[in-house]
Amino acid sequence: MTILCEVCVDSYSGAMKALSLGADRLEVCANLKIGGTTPSAGLFKRLRVATDKPLHVLFRPRGGDFIYTNDEVNTILEDIKLLKELGADGIVCGILLVDGSLDIAAMKQVCSAAPPLSFTFHRAFDVCSNPLEVLPQLMSLGIDRVLTSGQSLNALAGASKLREWIEAAPGLTFMAGGGISPLNVSDLLKQVPLKEIRFSGTILKPGRYQTEVSMSRDNPTEDSARLVTDRQRLADIFTQVRGFDRGNQ
Description:
eight-stranded parallel beta barrel
């Protein structure tokens, strides 16, 4: 069985690198440096013209936690309507309450707006207070897959929980994501019976100018640095995954 590889991108150039190396699907977002936010319509439109590969879109109105006000939920709903009209193939979203439980009321609204698109509950799952309680709730909402690192620093470290959840919720697809690198992806695939993985293949690139002015942080150097999709890092991950595929055929 071939492992489906989804690459998370926040730029047109990053998407082109991923597609040229064999990405099966893209998660399109903005601001990877803060974990991703909803992408611009302009970026999505360009990618939709450039490829017929599935494009799943992150709907996250801001960085920080996944506890959203009614106004933020309404923004998510408007963004879903817009990106569906532009040709999105999938929705990526997750909304929680303050106690770490699923915000069922908000999720019902989002899930009602999603059909007929595929729905991925993203790494908000990794900060759920009781994941085994949330899994049947997600299935009842019609969620297709869960993106998770196994509530750990990276997906390999969360391998035991990933195995537990796969067994507990056979109606869901579990897509491992978080800290996947050329150094750990083979071990992850050996330890967990995954059908899908997700990675970004990014590196931190320093800013191209020196300044004492910061746009949002105390440290101007950190402020101007950005995560960029690195072709070699992506290629190395793909090599490991496809090698695993061949070895298990």
